[in-house]
Amino acid sequence: MIVCICNRVSDSTIRSCVEQGARSLKDIRDTLKVGVVCGTCAQCARALVRQYVSEQREREGSMAA
Fold first, then answer.
1. Lowest CB count within 10 Å: 16, 23, 27, 60, which one?
2. 41 contacts 35 by C-beta, under 8 angstroms
């Protein structure tokens, strides 16, 4: 799914960015330029980052157990 139409950034691209260490909207904004043109995607992008970071922490926690 395309999240940022202005810069053609998909949810899978955001997920990859999180897997590489992004932890906030600012991180993906700096890397992918999400939300810098019109800003309409910022809320959705922020929610996706939070979701993906949470999923990543859960996976890491289950691997440590």
1. 60
2. yes
The structural domains of the chain, ordered by start, are 2-64 (1.10.10.1100)
Could you read off the pLDDT of 11-46 as tens digits, one per residue?
Answer: 999 999 999 999 999 999 999 999 999 999 999 999
Category of 60 on φ-ψ map: left (φ > 0), alpha (ψ -120 to 50) or beta: alpha
Per-residue H/E/C for 1-18: CEEECCCCEEHHHHHHHH
Of 51, 1, 38, 56, whose CA–CA distance to 29 is shortest? 38
